[in-house]
Each structure stands twice: as structure tokens, then as C-alpha cells.
Structure prediction request, 571 residues.
Amino acid sequence: MPKRVGIEVSLAASEAACAADVDVIAADPVTPQTHIVEHLSELVADGELDAEFMPVESEHSAMSACIGAAAAGARTFTATSAPGLALMHEIVFIAPSLRTPIVMVVANRALSGPISIWNDHSDIMAERDCGWIQTFAENGQEVFDLIIHAFRVAEDPEVLLPVIVNMDGFTLSHVIEPIEMLSASEVSEYLKPYNPQMVLDPREPITMGPVGVPEMYTEARYQAESVLNGSKKVIVKAWKEFAKLYGRSYKPIETYRTEGAEVVLMTMGSVTETAMTAVDRMREKGIEVGLMRFRLWRPFPVQEFRRAVKGIKALAVVDRAISFGAQGGPVCSKVKSALYGAPDQPQVFGFISGLGGRDITVEMFEEIVKKAIRYATKGKGPMYELIGVRER
Amino acid sequence: MIEIRVHGRGGQGAVTSTELMALAAINEGKYAQAFPSFGPERRGAPVMAFVRIADGPIRTREKVYQPDVVVVLDPTILKIVDVTAGLKRNGMVILNTSKDEEEVRKTFGIKAKMALVDATSIAMKQLGRPITNTTMLGALIKASGVIDIKSMETPLKKRFGRIAEKNLNAMREAYEQAQ
Prediction:
């Protein structure tokens, strides 16, 4: 059994890309992603990783370079954070359309303004509909494992889509914790060399990314949507094989102590662990509460979700971003729409918390659960609530 | 689980000290978590860093609000920061000071259990600089007993290279002197 080593989660992310033996890294440093690309450039400079490191001048160029590299058949990695991801926005949408299996880590950070370097999910929610597979890590171990998994899924001939692995900026990226690392040779059992289906090669020229005339655009978008939805079975299968080889098992949705729960908290990302502690503490006091969290955000695992909520009376969904003008958070909106028309729906109450790095505490989860129980008993609650906001 | 909060000023190595402590604990087979209070920290401004050490997986990511142990790298912090805020009952404050216990209690009104060490003098002697983070680790390990002082050798050597020995000596001297 591999030994746990103490390492900063950002460095573990770089080590995962290294263990995956990437060919090309194109990135620009941005807080709080910086340590990932710093360490990768070290690994390349020290000869530990045989890859091309392209220190581009902007994220728009980073993603353009990644697409070019992946189109030429290279295993490609990048990482970014809020302002960088926003600058990349235009090109992010092109990667899935060209079926370039890039893996990108997003160290989640709040979008400006006001300017914030701290953690929330507003950056990734602005890219929600970009057509990439998107997963969320709960801890450092998962960051490492999800990156390895991401390459396996992305490069599967049935998929050929780019994957974003989300990890909370600072609250995950800058924490030192124990992680079981896998070496490149251990990973090579799981991740075979990338075998591209089609490559840009001057000797056998093809066109990638031509104009999509109105007669073709709808069909192209239909394909992008079909392949993304269809990727779920590959994602799940790849997790099962990961468990067989390395002993850690992952699912699109995880549940924790949901049996007989009056209210179930729903989270995404690193706050899940804090929520688990809150659940344990409340269960000790006799409050029947459980926890559910999304590991897979896109494609949204709708069947798994409907199965998981069966018999649950109320959900308290905790969002880390505001969907401005939509009266709630993006996760809660998706949860509600996924439940619409399902039999025996739970009541859903939306909470928004931890914006721009505000700490999410065990106590805060206890407050959310208490409120949700009260609303569930009454049979109604507000459209959504911003937890801990000072109105004056 | 033991929760530790380190107070210092930007540039004094508060964050490094928590990282080294966590690495040592993980090398011992324990679980640990080290992280700074993230912010636009400037050299000289008061900063905080946190460590949790436990026998099993740690499942919380909130800051440390109710520490078992508080470490103060810089005595001038006491005038501007309430370092005992949230300290657990039976919690302990480990202080870098040249003053004696009675004087510290009188001046700053600290009622909690204390361990004192003149870390600045030790650091000046061993390192030639008033950087007290590794020195204070010696006092912290002595007072808390949470890890074996020998476990600090590997992470310190990796971190400090050729100046590791000086830092180890400073740490060991504080370990002997802390009371």
C-alpha cells in the first residue's frame, strides 16, 4: 500500500500531471493556481518531466496553445483561476467542439468585483455551459485522483472531450495534507499512451474547426451535447477501474449518513468535509441530518441524483456563487430543474455561503440545517438565503 | 485532534512553522493539515497560520477558532492581537519572551497555561537573525508533546538545506529551555 506523504495540494496536482506523463503544458500563473504551474515548470526544467512547458502571455493564448497541442496529438494540461479562466472564456468553448481532450485544473476563485483573490465558485459557474466534463474535488487526495481519472476519460475514443477538475482555491490549493501519490509507472497501468483518432499533421492535412454554417451548426451542437451526456458511462466505468487498481472508489454523487434524514445538505467541493463534521455533531444531538454532494457536475448525473433523493423529505442546497437575477445559486437551480416532474420530490431550500473566501464553518452548516428543518415543517421557505450577510 | 494557531508577523515564518510541523506529523503516520490565514499579507503585518494533527482523517476546513495551543513568535504581537481568543479551556499559550511569567501575566492579563522561551535570543545566537519560527517549534513540541522532536529533522533538512543544522540547533535549544 502506498504511503501517505505530506504535500501542498497544488504541488500534488502538478505531480498528478507529471505522473500522467503529459506532453505539453501551456499556462500563465494566476493566484491561487500559481504553485501548480510553478512546480510543473520546475519538474520540466529539472528533467523530471519530459514535456514542453509553454509560459504563454495570457490565458487566451494558454487555451489556444493547449488546443493546438492536443489537436497535434499531445497529452495536454493547463491550470487557471477566476480572472484567467474568464480571459480564456472564448477559447474554452472551442476545445470540446474540436474534441481536444485537454485536462485543466481550476483553482476556484471569486470573480471581480470587488477584486477578490479568495475562494468561491463564481469562476467555474460562468463556464458552466462550456461543454467540458467538470468534476469537483473534496480534498487533496481527490484532486490527485481526479486528474489521473480526467486524462483517462478525456482520451477515451468514445469521449474525446476536455475535462475540468475543480479544486477550491486556498482552502484546498494551499493546504498541506497527507496524500497517497501514485508514480508514473503505477499510473501507466490505468492510463495508456494517448492514441488520438485524428491529428493535425502537415503530411496528411485535414481541417479542424471550420466555420459552422447554419446548415451544420445545429448538428455540431447536437453532437457536442450527445457526446457529453454519453460520457457519463465512461466516467463511471473509469472510476470503477480506478478503484480496482488503487482501492479508492468514486461515484458521481456521494451520500453521507442520509438514512432516515429529515434534511439532507447538498454541497460541492471542499466544504463537504466541514459539512460532514457538522452532520456528525448534529446526529450526536439527535438531529436527523445527512449530506449529499456532487463530484460530477457536468454531465449532470440526473438519474443518480433522482435515485439518491428517493425518500428524502428536504434538501438544503449550499451554493458557492450567486446566479445574479435568478433568485438563487446555480446548483440549487439545477437541483430544482432536475427534480421537476419526478415523483415524491423533496422540498428544496437554497442557501448561498462562502462567497469571496468567507470561511464556511461547522456552525454555519448547523444554522442552515436548523433553518431548513423549520421551513420543511412549515412547508415553505424563502426563494434563497445568503447566509451570514450583513445588510447594514 | 489537536488544533494549533501560530501568531507572528509577515516574514517571521509562521506559515513555514505550521507546514514543517504538519509534515513531521504526517511522516509519523499521523494525519495533519497546515494552512495560512489567506490574505494580502505584508512583511511585518500580523499574520496567523494553523495546524491540525490527529490520529485519523481530519474532516473540517474551517479556520482554527478554538485552538488547544497558541504559539506567539513575536512578543510585540501581544499588544495588538488578543492571542488567547477562542483558546480552549486548559489550552496553552507558548510565548517568545525575555520576560518572566509573572511579568507577562501582569502586563497582558493572560490567565491560560503558559510556556515561555526567549526564542529571539536563541535565534540570534544560533542563526544570527531574529527569525524565531524554527526555535519556537522546539518550545511547541516540548510543551504539547504532540510529535517527537526527532521527526522534525527530515522536513527541516529538506526545507533549509545547508542552514538546516543551525535551525535544528535553535529548535533543540528551545526544546531544552522551554518552561
Summary: The interface with chain B takes residues 4-6, 8, 32, 117-118, 170-172, 174-178, 270-271, 273-274, 276-277, 357, 359-362 of chain A (CB under 8 Å).
